[in-house]
Design brief:
Helix content is 27%, strand content 28%. The protein is α/β, with parallel strands linked by helices.
């Protein structure tokens, strides 16, 4: 099964990092967040990726072209002009990188991937968020309901401490808990090919008309994920993820080293 990943946004709210690179290439623990996402899918046996590129897409292309060399020990035989890599662990990934336009919106990027995804079920996520969602259970949920689209619904951590009262007396205080109410779009979709019919073109935002129409038609189901999920929209989010990684047990790390 193919996994489509939208990796073309400008990332303006993370401009401290994205002046020189696209957001999926912003590093957590010395690796692009895109690498963390691919590792999560790989853990569930999903290794065939199609990336929708846009803003500074050449940076992503260069990273994967150079990946084996960067991750290996090298011997360079200058007279022969030969480079030998050794001592490396190469992931068994197929990474297809498609230019989908700098100004194209999310729905348009998905639509442009239709020739590469084919007329089959596929998975979809964004290139800037990590989670420990069980992708096997997500897929089983999708297969069981028979609708066109499944979205993973998440309850993100609250930004501020949560308090409950009895009059003016604080009866409960939780520092930045997971939000007790309000499910939001956590991406990690499973989609049938009919979903392309809900997208008009490049100027379509996936989160607006297509998802609204799918819901109105009774074709959008939610897989509720109570575990970890975190997007990387701002520098604050990036610092949070980096701190979690440096603590040695990041909650989205489902794979073994």
């Amino acid at each position: 099964m193919k996994v489509a990943i939208l990796a073309g946004g400008v990332g303006s709210r993370l401009s401290e990092e994205t002046q020189t690179k696209p957001k999926p290439m912003v590093e957590i623990g010395g690796r692009p967040i895109l690498w963390h996402i691919l590792k999560h899918y790989d853990h569930y046996g999903l290794k065939d990726f199609t990336l929708a590129l846009g803003y500074k897409g050449e940076c992503i292309k260069k990273y994967f072209v150079d990946y084996c060399s960067l991750e290996s020990n090298l011997t360079v035989k200058l007279a022969a002009g030969a480079v030998e890599s050794h001592g490396n662990k190469r992931p068994d990934w197929n990474v297809e990188m498609i230019d989908t336009g700098v100004a194209t919106l999310t729905g348009g990027r998905i639509k442009r991937l239709k020739p590469y995804v084919g007329n089959v079920r596929f998975m979809l996520t964004w290139g800037d968020g990590v989670s420990n969602v069980n992708l096997q259970k997500l897929l089983e949920f999708h297969q069981a309901h028979g609708k066109i689209a499944t979205v993973t619904a998440v309850r993100p951590a609250a930004r501020f401490g949560h308090m409950m009262f009895d009059g003016d007396r604080v009866t409960e205080f939780s520092e930045k808990p997971q939000a007790a109410e309000g499910w939001v779009n956590g991406a990690f979709f499973v989609l049938e090919p009919e979903v392309f019919d809900y997208i008009d073109g490049d100027s379509t935002q996936w989160e607006r008309e297509p998802m609204e129409r799918l819901a109105a038609d009774g074709q959008l189901m939610a897989y509720r994920h109570d575990g970890f999920w975190q997007c990387m929209d701002t520098l604050r989010d990036k610092v949070l993820l980096e701190d979690l990684w440096q603590d040695g047990n990041p909650p989205w790390k489902t794979w073994d080293d």
